[in-house]
Design brief:
Strand order of the largest sheet: 1-2-3
Order of helices and strands: HHHHHHHHHHHHEEHHHHE
Distance between the termini: 47 Å
Number of helices: 16
Largest sheet: 3 strands, antiparallel
Number of domains: 1
Structural class: mainly alpha
Length: 444
């Protein structure tokens, strides 16, 4: 595929998403949900004063501070850099899909579906940590996916994995949950090397072997020239280095006692953050359990403010119902594609979705919200594309050569995005009319 076409598509996606995400960005005019934590923290970085938001690493808050520095301490300044990283996330999803499916139309479909998956729109327009974390993670996953090939040169695979390592480190430096796919990819590489060491191979050819874009999830030749030292460098040393690089501003900050930060102080932020994560025990009316998130049982109102006597503006963190619910069926199709046909695409989409969605079952945090599902919800676009791609290339799933079907699906998803847009973008609505968007009482 021509590089110029890919670059042009990335540029077009960036411009379109920036325009869409920046419209009405000044609302809410006040601090919105967790901006109450992160905007004051960003201001403290700008003033080089001791940071009070010590539960999270610094990178995302430093990036928010850069927006305030460039555009002023106002809503546009608070949220502009988050919007920029939302656009990077969209580009990352396109590149990740391109690496997975090796098909331009399918990758473009993933990007467009991501754009109308309400989650990206809402999360990119608030100065929280997740937009930054996911952008770095998805760029890392795109590079990692592209490296998982039998025909790749060792030097190129090392460069791709080194890039992935830096991105994973920066994702973790934005929010610790960014380490989940990092550890997952490290596990996959080590597992690959163990299986190859055993001399394992498949005797039976997959029924999809001759189909367009098919790749077996395992073969003795995948990354066969990659050594353990390469893995240690790219997915342990480099991510850790990238993580701690983001703490350099701490050495220019004096603590309340007047003493400067030392290297020991920076290293001790790790156990301090761990302690802080476990100490969050306050209840919240919109807190929910991880197993309720795939079904969108308890979305979260980031804002709901009066704008006159009978007018309100609200921001609801709610996924696109079509994508969220049909995406779960598509995840099941990925499982089938992996088990029955040994599909790399099916395996990796399923693997990353499970990591993002079910890690919260073991993470020792007592307070959780629907927006924690944001990364998992984003991967559903890939799962849905997996189904359509296999339909269109004649790989079973009951239908063949139905190229019109994916665009009919996208049109329906776009219609739902437009339908929910007023309560995603804080448009002026009457104080009673918001209930027409509340399909279930648990959404209120």
């Amino acid at each position: 595929m021509r590089l110029r076409k890919i670059v042009f598509t990335c540029l077009a996606l960036f411009i379109v998403s920036e325009i869409l995400l920046l419209i009405n960005i000044q609302f809410p005019r006040g601090l919105n949900f967790d901006e109450f934590h992160y905007i004051p923290s960003a201001r403290q970085f700008l003033s080089l004063s001791e940071n009070q938001n010590w539960e999270h690493p610094p990178l995302a808050k430093i990036l928010i501070a850069s927006g305030i520095k460039l555009f002023g301490d106002r809503p546009f300044g608070w949220r502009s850099v988050s919007v920029f990283f939302g656009s990077l996330s969209l580009i990352g999803m396109f590149l990740w899909a391109l690496a997975l499916f090796k098909n331009y139309q399918t990758a473009l479909f993933v990007a467009l579906l991501t754009l109308v998956n309400n989650l990206l729109f809402v999360q990119s327009r608030i100065a929280m940590l997740d937009s930054f974390m996911f952008a770095f993670d998805v760029l890392a996953l795109a590079a990692f996916t592209y490296s998982w090939r039998a025909d790749i040169e060792v030097k190129k695979s090392v460069r791709l994995l080194a890039f992935a390592g830096f991105m994973f480190g920066f994702a973790t430096a934005s929010k610790w949950f960014g380490a989940v796919p990092w550890f997952g990819c490290l596990f996959l590489l080590l597992l690959l090397k163990v299986i190859q060491y055993w001399g394992t191979s498949f005797n039976k050819v997959s029924l999809w072997q001759s189909k367009e874009g098919f790749q077996d999830w395992y073969s003795p030749n995948i990354l066969s020239g990659l050594r353990i030292s390469h893995i240690l460098l790219c997915l342990i040393f480099i991510p850790v280095l990238a993580y701690f690089i983001t703490f350099i501003p701490f050495f220019f900050i004096k603590k309340a006692s007047g003493v400067s930060y030392s290297l020991y102080d920076v290293l001790m932020t790790v156990p301090k953050m761990w302690e802080g994560q476990q100490r969050v025990v306050n209840t919240h009316p919109y807190m929910s359990n991880w197993y309720s998130w795939p079904l969108m049982m308890r979305p979260i109102w980031y804002a709901f403010d009066k704008d006159g006597n009978s007018i309100v503006r609200g921001v609801l963190m709610l996924g696109n119902p079509l994508i969220m619910w049909s995406g779960l069926l598509a995840v099941g199709a990925c499982l089938w594609g992996w088990i029955a046909r040994r599909s790399w695409q099916g395996f990796f989409i399923l693997f990353i979705y499970v990591l993002f969605a079910f890690s919260w079952a073991v993470i020792p945090r007592k307070v959780a919200f629907y927006y924690y599902y944001f990364p998992a919800g984003m991967t559903l676009s890939l799962a849905i594309a997996f189904v359509f791609h296999n339909w269109e290339t004649g790989k079973e799933f009951f239908l063949e050569n139905c190229k019109w079907l994916r665009w009919a699906y996208f049109t329906f998803a776009l219609a739902l995005f437009i339908y929910f847009y007023p309560i995603l973008a804080a448009l002026r609505i009457s104080s009673d009319s918001f209930r027409k968007w509340m399909w279930f009482t648990s959404w209120i």
